[in-house]
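Z., the sequence and structure:
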Amino acid sequence: MDDLARLIEHVMAEKDWTLSTLARRSGLSTSTLHSWKSGDRATGNRGPSPDKLRQLADGAGIPVATVFEAAGRHVPAPMDDEDERRFVQLFRSLDSADRRVIEATMQAMGERRRAAK
């Protein structure tokens, strides 16, 4: 989280933005950004969610990989539109019980990757 705090400070200084400006541009709350910037662990053991990290990257105009690395998260591999369409189509073809199994499996894989660090 220290690296994420430094990244937020760097973005704000480089662009001459306030925390409120960064919040507005990223669609994140000022309180969320403040907790990340101050190193507050209110985000839980897992840290910021991937969706919120992507919002920060988009709002700040910096690469998603940079934000994920600063947050100490696994950098997601790029996925082209065709791969995403295929995965979504396969997922939609499953019944709700199988969807829960796939979701639990994916979460376990993510947890295993984080534990290996």
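The chain has a mean pLDDT of 88. The longest helix spans residues 96-115.

Let me know what you think.
H.
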